[in-house]
Design brief:
Layout: H1 3-32, H2 38-51, H3 53-64
Helix pairs in contact: 1-3
Length: 69
Amino acid sequence: MPVGLRKFIGTFLIVAMVLLYALLATTVATLTLGTSPWWVHLMYFLFTGVLWVLPAMLLIKWMAGPVRK
C-alpha cells in the first residue's frame, strides 16, 4: 500500500479514535466519578488524557510505512 494512502486512511482513523475515546472517557467519568473528590477527577483525566497516545503512536508508525534499508 502506498504511503500516501496509508497517511490518508490513518488521518481519518486517528480523528475517529480520538473522538470515540473522548466520548468513552467522559461517559465513564460522568457515570463513576460524580461524588469523588477533585483529586480523583484530576488523576483520572490526567491518566485518560495521556492514554490515547499509545494507540495513536502505533497508528502513526503504520502510517509511515515499512522501514527501508
